[in-house]
Amino acid sequence: MDSTLISRPGYRSDIDGLRAIAVMAVVFFHAFPSSLRGGFIGVDVFFVISGFLISGIVLDGLERGTFTFSDFYQRRIKRIFPALFLILAACLALGWCLLMADEYKSLGKHIAGGSVFASNFILAKEANYFGAAADSKQLLHLWSLAVEEQFYIVWPLVLWLAFHRKWNFLLISLLAAMASFYLNIRQSGIDLTEDFYAPQTRFWELMFGSALCCAIRQIPAERKEGGNVIPGWASIVGVVLLACGFGLLDKEIGFPGKWALVPVLGAVLIICAGPNAWVNKVVLSNRVLVWIGLISFPLYLWHWPLLSFLSTFLGGTPTVQLRFAAVLLSVALAWFTYRFIEIPVRFGVFGKTRVALLAVLVGVTGILGLIVYYWNGFQSKGADEFISYYSEMNETIPGSAMRKAYRHECNFLDVDQEVAGVHYVARSEISSNCYTRDFAKSKSIFLWGDSHAQQLYFGLSRQLSDDWQILQVATSNCGVLANHLDGTRKSALCAKSNQMAKESIARAKPDVVLVSQVVPLSASEAAQVNKQVLELGAKHVIFVGPVTRWQTDLVKLVARKYMIHTPRYTFSGLNMAMYETNTELKKAYAEANINYVDVMSLMCNEDGCLTYLGDDVRKGLTARDYGHLLPMASDFVAKNLLVPQIYRIDS
Fold first, then answer.
1. Model confidence over 420-452: pLDDT tens digits?
2. Range of 517's domain?
3. Which of 41, 121, 152, 487 lies 20 to 30 Å from 297 when distance is taken between CA atoms?
4. In total, how many domains does the chain have?
5. Calpha distance 234→211 (Å, rounded)
6. What is the arithmetic mean of pLDDT over 307-313?
């Protein structure tokens, strides 16, 4: 343990212990998400600690007359840039060795964003922190560092103004925290992704730490004797709050919103209980926890890129043993970074010239990231051309064949806005051809669901006889039971789509309603939908089970592992959990006497699941991503499974 660091005046070992709890929670959430569902709240604990410590540093300097902005930011550079440079440079090198061109291009953009602390803004337009796409973003975790650094740009200036104008520090902190918290609550009801990443909706967590710092400074010295500000049991309450957060909160609750109060208040109570509270003195000041706390920053920086690169390279979730090995390697790299990089830079003789050099190194790395991005990840031949071919098969591209194959005009989601980073915007209307009955056709089928219903259109349009009309109201990201209005754009979008679907079914009274969505309905949910649709006037309802699901994009799985010889069937990279879910659903639907189409039974056998159709793997892959059917596969499913089932049930 470094004596230089822990012997400095005002140092609190219990706060390093709290850092250890926070970083271990985040690491275990990323490595073993099912074992610690709420581990992501460790970042919120970091925010409180940062607000508390930084405010103390600034206020101490102001009161002593030694504070300067140049000194403050030099200290931040020496604290942050050494480890950050290592991570960015390592990712640049590893990406060159392990990633495909499009993946490397994306990494280049995130390296550039990370170098200027803008990762949160980039990610807000790209990925939900808890979404499947987030796993492939090696620098996803830099969003929190960006928020902290943005806070450090604004808050010291506010404190400096407050000091010189004789404003009350505590009042300013509380007012700012309340304003930010209000924005957080409001935004959580509109767009959770924006709420998660935006600095204005996250600053309140750091300001709670700042307010605590200001409150403690206003307490007379005689009341702070021994270091305790409030009774020691406060830290026990804080620990209970954190434990409840780690165990009970999960990614489905709509975080941050009001739920972020749980870790924030827990951290505040633990810190303000003081270093002599029993929990703080005995548990958090334990030498092991303090050591982990001291390496917490480089550990946070190292762990996620290693896990993400491992997952990307293997084409799916690594084994428990490999993930554990990645965590151990992260700890080793964190210790090395702390001991041989951080300590010499932070506490050695390090003049302004060398501080400037650190900034230049990070800046140059960011520029290299931009070069990678603008040069398309240095696209090469072979596997990258293969990926490029399939990347064009995406309905997010205006005018692409996939928009026609998925019948884009029947999707209420404004896909162009989605691509631009504005999520869940509803189009004012869809084409009347999607829901208006053409009685020149003697039969009609109605597709209802999300993009997993959209993918069935192409095959049905080719395989159903000419006397069948295909109606469709299927909106991306909207399951058929998503009808609850909670103020968010997504709920409004889905409610609008599903209301239109039900009204259209009632008017058209189709012969068959085909229901399909990414998250399969349970048998009881399906029974509810089945009853409702029949009451609306449809003659029959068919529920389509999940298609083959892969842990990563099938295109990249094949490009990375099977370009020379692609097996027609494989278990490699298969999402076995969905495979097992399908078996359970098939049995439950049969017991409930509900029509269920088992797509996996067609696409999978004892050798695994279909990777491609036809003779050319470069043109015949079954899916363009984790499980959206390409047109050839949609045609295959319709011809061999759906259409025979439709004809049978309607006969």
1. 878 889 999 999 999 999 999 999 999 999 999
2. 390-650
3. 121
4. 2
5. 17
6. 92
